[in-house]
Amino acid sequence: MENEMITNQNNSRESLDTDDSINIKRTGYPLIQYNTPRNLMQFVEIKPFNSQTQPHARSGHRAVATDSDVWIWGGYFPTNNPERSPMFAELWRFNYALRRWTLEPTTGDVPNSTLASHSMCLHRNCVFVFGGTGYPFGRVVSNDLFILDLKRLHWKRIQLQNQPPEAVYGASIIGKDDYLYILCGTSSWHYHSNVYEIHLPTMRSTQIGYTFDETEDPSGNGRYRQEAHIHDNQIFLFGGGSNSGLTFSLEYLPVFDLNTHNWSFVHTNPDPIHNYPSARKFHSIFPFRKNQILIFGGAHLDQTASHHIATDGKLWIFDFEKLEWSRSPSLTMVKRSYFQAATINQRGEIWSHGGVVHESTAPRTEIRISTLYKMDSQISSLRELCWNRFLNCVSDRSCLLDQRHLLKQLNIPAQFIERIH
Questions:
Q1: Does this model's pTM top 0.85?
Q2: For 215-231, what is each residue's pLDDT tens digit?
Q3: Residue 73 pairs with which residues in a beta bridge?
């Protein structure tokens, strides 16, 4: 199941040139064709060179990406074994250059009781983790804010001053300049769409927005597991779930103005052929080109059958200037998933790990995966292309850890050598 590839990716691998064929024989691993016309804007499975060391299948975890690594924290996998916890208090790191997973030990105030549906972001070289839940879901809920130092692998719990946010899971967290913004979420019983502004130099938290009236769900207000994006000093919300089980559509988007501290709704324009993306929660969004975001994954709750259904797996683009949705039939996930941990780095590489999928033969059965996918959302620079070509010519990349002096003699720029660790 996890080795399944979509047709156009199979075709791209069949088109490897002679040099790449030689490298496949030399290393024993197929190469990824970075930024060829067929692979740009296509998800490709990235297999670690050592498949024996990698994270267990999971969902509900979160990810951030640096120049050199993808980092994932937490996650959930159901188990009937009373001696095994269904939650993962684990920090895993995937190094791009070595194509290797490493389980990293951490110290400090480890947030090991709320490991699912926490909020996580990388801002100014610091990883911030807020809230989350343990298992059973909703029994233990947190409003703690933690900072993870990726160099020292050390956790620190932050004492927020003034007006700390509520204890929730499924909130959104975004960084902008000297501030973090935390909004929405649920305690399992109560849902809200409050907005909190945290001034990072002083760690002073102030409530600047209050729960708005949902137009789609008259039974209650608030939402969780939505995605948020800041554009032109406004926070746009995309999707999410309500306390009644309803999944919010993407036709009307809630918008919070950071200048006036007021909520409003904007009506978006549909794709002229494909209409609107389906309603969803547990999805992912990322900046894409100028004034656009890319959205993929997620699910909605079939309230009649009482189980989640994954979205169609298409990739959608939203244009903030036109307030318009567009969909390309050629942009497709390898597998339709939700509750995946996805992230993007400065080079526009989108990485997605794990999540929940459904087999076509058993559509109501939730299967958690451990697969790692990558998509280039923009064309790489010539330097990056050369670096990837160099790595593909190395039969055993682990030797690069001990051969830094040779890399320097080859005039490999320091910025690339520093990525190997």
A1: yes
A2: 999 888 999 999 999 99
A3: 62, 91
